[in-house]
Specification:
The protein is mainly alpha-helical and 335 residues long. Helix 9 packs across helix 10 and helix 9 packs parallel to helix 11.
Length: 335
């Protein structure tokens, strides 16, 4: 395509579109129809230029022009409570359901690695000695030690808020940093697995693994599931950078990134629930079986939420992304 000839042939249309956009709300009915037609033609022109004769300056101008025209044609839309309800009942669970092929293997491998590392730490005194001095280990693992008093060391409400904030930050980092070729996500996940393995190993070596699991399971089931979902989604986002598939890398990353932002919001709610359990149930005087039963019930409720509501929404075409009318226009990629 001869770019100079193309620009000469269509410059008048672009200038006319820009003029109509400057008019704003003062358009007549005929001018509004003309603006829509020019917007559609300019979007087509932009697609042709990007696929056949990309020119940075011209592409930037037409991209801005098409974006402004699209905003004028479609108008702005305010979020409503209906949007929030739709997100919680369809968008978020569908996004979690669709990413299950990433977070379920992440969860299984992480759990196995934590168990293996915990066994290694618990059966090798030299490894325990490298972690802390013997008197420090006794102070952590003995009855009434640091592992037990940790959950009741602060008022329940402030402790729950602190735990929620820390976990939400970790989940958000997994989701955001996944775009950096997965590496930060793997590191964050490893640190969490290592902390869990150290607790398993040290408490098992002291013969108190049942006590440790009784403290961790009530909140840990839901909390770790949320972390695994965040890590799996972050890994998926990173893999999109490496292999975007049939879409352009920019388009694929934008779609996965929007879904990841929604996941961060949804997981913050899930982690709030686990934080409440950790702050009020874990250190409570309830029997161990009752505390674990609450944790299992919360975990099963989340899985049912994902597989029933999320599966139904995903099969209906929900992907956890914005509606097509709210997304930026995507141009066809060159074959």
């Amino acid at each position: 395509m001869d770019l100079d000839v193309f620009v000469t042939a269509h410059r008048t249309e672009w200038d006319r579109l820009e003029h109509l956009l400057h008019r704003g709300r003062r358009l007549t009915g005929t001018e509004a129809d003309e603006l829509v037609a020019l917007y559609q033609r300019t979007a087509t022109h932009l697609s042709l230029i990007q696929s056949s004769a990309p020119d940075p300056m011209l592409t930037a101008r037409l991209t801005q022009l098409v974006a402004r025209a699209r905003s004028t044609v479609t108008g702005t839309r305010r979020a409503t409570w209906r949007d929030a309800t739709r997100f919680l009942t369809a968008g978020f669970p569908a996004a979690v359901y669709r990413s299950r092929h990433w977070w379920i293997p992440t969860a299984v491998l992480s759990t196995l690695l934590a168990a293996l590392m915990g066994w290694w730490i618990g059966t090798h005194p030299e490894v325990q000695a490298a972690i802390a001095a013997p008197e420090d280990l006794r102070r952590m693992t003995s009855p009434g030690g640091e592992y037990e008093t940790y959950y009741s060391s602060h008022p329940a409400a402030s402790f729950a808020a602190q735990v929620w904030t820390n976990n939400a930050q970790a989940a958000a980092m997994c989701l955001v940093l996944g775009a950096f070729l997965c590496l930060p996500v793997i590191w964050i996940l490893f640190v969490n697995v290592l902390n869990l393995a150290v607790g398993i190993g040290l408490m098992s070596s002291a013969g108190r693994l049942d006590t440790f699991l009784g403290l961790v399971l009530p909140h840990g089931l839901l909390e770790l599931t949320a972390v695994f979902v965040a890590a799996g989604t972050g890994l998926r986002l990173g893999w999109t950078v490496i292999d975007p598939g049939p879409r352009t890398r920019r388009s694929a990353l934008a779609q996965q990134g929007r879904a990841a932002i929604g996941m961060a919001i949804g997981l913050a709610v899930v982690l709030f629930v686990s934080g409440v359990i950790e702050g009020f149930v874990t250190p409570s005087g309830l029997p161990t079986w009752a505390r674990i039963a609450i944790g299992i019930a919360a975990e099963l409720a989340f899985l049912a939420y994902v597989y029933i509501l999320g599966g139904r929404a995903a099969r209906a075409g929900e992907a956890g992304d914005l509606d097509a009318t709210e997304r930026s226009a995507e141009l066809p990629a060159a074959a």
